[in-house]
Amino acid sequence: MKVLLLGFLLVCGVDLFSQSMVLQQGDAEKAGFSKAGFERLDQIVQGYIDKQWIAGATMIVAKNGVIVYHQALGYSDLAKKTRMQKDHIFRIASQTKAITSVGVMILLEQGKILLDDPVAKYIPAFAQTGVLDKFNAADSSFTTVPAKRPITIRDLLTHTSGIGYAQIGSPEYQALSAKAGVVAGLGVPSYSLADQVEKIARLPLEFQPGE
């Protein structure tokens, strides 16, 4: 079984990016938290470990610079049975998804967007995006069929847009994206996001939106 690691950070009312902030250990109940709630969190995460969904996890909750909960469960290395420690370091990828999703929820709450708005309303290039029909591996040429409906913001949030993943996606989409000059986004700071999005919109979707 592959070693799966989960870094789980919960922050309440604290700016962890402030260099002047020094977290101190405190009492959960004095800070307005329920110890029983944290015990339930322990049980939930331990359940994930017991079911082998993850190998281990670290969790921390802080409020106003005070740590009210800090726990390490499971293993950092299953093969060696190395126990997870609170100060273990994780490589956490895909955090743009979390940040962007929060941004979308803020815009939704402010009434500036709707989840079922078509993406093309904001990025017109997606109005012409088709769905992959036939793919020729010899030269990465392809044919498309029309999308049954537009891609929506909801589709983007739920990974049901049909947009593939450059470099680590399906063999077909990897070939198509490489030919179009689309990259996964790691280690290419000189690339323009606007240019990449326009290129992605010209690539075919891997499946019908919502399917």
Summarize the structure.
The chain is 27% helix and 20% strand.
Alpha-carbon distance between the two ends: 30 Å
- Listing every helix as H and every strand as E from the N terminus to the C terminus, the arrangement reads EEHEEEHEEHHH
What is the approximate shape? elongated
| Overall radius of gyration | 22 Å
Largest sheet: 5 strands, mixed
Tally of separate helices: 5
Q: What's the total number of strands?
A: 7
What is the topology?
Elements: E1 5-12, E2 24-25, H1 35-50, E3 56-63, E4 66-77, E5 82-83, H2 95-109, E6 131-136, E7 141-145, H3 153-157, H4 171-180, H5 193-202
Parallel strand pairs: 1-3, 2-4
Antiparallel strand pairs: 3-4, 4-5, 6-7
Summary tags:
211 residues, alpha/beta, 2 domains, 5-stranded mixed beta sheet, 5 helices, 7 strands, 27% helix, disordered N terminus
Description:
The protein is an alpha/beta fold. 27% of the residues lie in helices and 20% in strands. The chain has two domains: 5-92, no CATH class; 97-202, no CATH class. It has helices at residues 35-50, 95-109, 153-157, 171-180, 193-202; strands at 5-12, 24-25, 56-63, 66-77, 82-83, 131-136, 141-145. The two termini are 30 Å apart. Mean pLDDT is 87; it is low at 1-19.
